[in-house]
Amino acid sequence: MGDRPNKNGSVPKTVTELWSNWQQPGGAGPCSECPRHWSRRSDIPDQGQNEDPNNYGMKPWFAEGDFSPEVVVMGEEPGSRDPDTKKNQLNSQFKQTRGDIREVAEDSETIKQVKPLFDALYDSDIPTYWTNMTKCHPIGSNDNAVGQDVCCGLSEKVDRSYLRDELEELEPQIVITVGGPAAKKLLKLYGRQLSDFAKTTMSGDYLSGFHPQSNHNAPFEIATAFHPRYLFNSGEFQSRKSEIQNAQGEEQNRVKKPYYGQYGDDLVEWISTN
């Protein structure tokens, strides 16, 4: 992978600022109110009396791919993970680990299923950036809604939004949300309440259901896609299932690969005409 010239550009200011805020004990900016911050997590050793703080590998996951993107693909949050005492990054600068967008899918069993979408964008030479709506890993079985709202800027506890600042600095043509929570919170951030996610996601004229959403005030287009954990059992999807499988040349027992492949093809076609 990554056999063509690196076109990523310079690291966005919002990315380095978020990283710096996260590194500080207690956090700075929105990180100071977030229960997912490394200094307040219940799933790593207590940092209260520690003269040498350690994040135990619990770092934000965002800012992968191209820093001058036409497309941003946005997940809900990093998956849960076990602490790693060998990965203390509280004194290191932000360093992108995946300049090739396809490598994002290789690092997550869940997101790996979205790879046909990444492949379609890469093969069409469309600059693409990956981020998560909420930057840090969830905490076990805790209610993580507070952390999500703080990071998005939907909480009354914060006066700015990492997500809004990040996306607006990047200036993409379109943001693709993966999953219902990511779609609902991003649209809410830009003035729209989304009620029926499955129906809305499949309501476009393209075969995959792809279409830019309306009635929001974001300075970029927003389109929604299903998450790999989605059961793909809605009536709206089932009515197109066989046609999607046939278009992608897939067997009838495969659903997710043809869906993301078709979604990628439809997105590429839309970009070529807009």
Explain how this protein is built.
The protein starts with 12 loop residues before the first helix and ends with a helix. Helices cover 32% and strands 8% of the residues. The longest helix is centred in the last third of the chain and has 17 residues, at 256-272. It has a single domain (13-39, 58-272), classed as Uracil-DNA Glycosylase, subunit E, CATH 3.40.470. Strands 1-3-2-4-5 form a 5-stranded mixed beta sheet, with helices on both faces. Mean pLDDT is 90; it is low at 1-6. The relative contact order is 0.15. It is α/β, with parallel strands linked by helices and 274 residues long.
Q: How far from one another are the termini?
A: 29 Å
Sheet having the most strands: 5 strands, mixed
CATH superfamily: Uracil-DNA glycosylase-like domain
CATH class term: Alpha Beta
Could you say which overall geometry the principal axes of the C-alpha atoms support?
globular
Number of domains: 1
Low-pLDDT windows of residues: 1-6
> What order do the strands of the largest sheet run in, or round the barrel if closed?
1-3-2-4-5
Class based on secondary structure composition and strand pairing: alpha/beta
Q: CATH topology, what is it called?
A: Uracil-DNA Glycosylase, subunit E
User: Total strand count, please?
Assistant: 5
Please state the second-level CATH architecture.
Answer: 3-Layer(aba) Sandwich
Helix % is: 25-40%
Strand content: 5-15%
Oligomer: single chain
- SSE arrangement, N to C: HEEHHEHHEHHEHH
> What integer value in Å does the Rg equal?
19 Å
The average pLDDT is 90
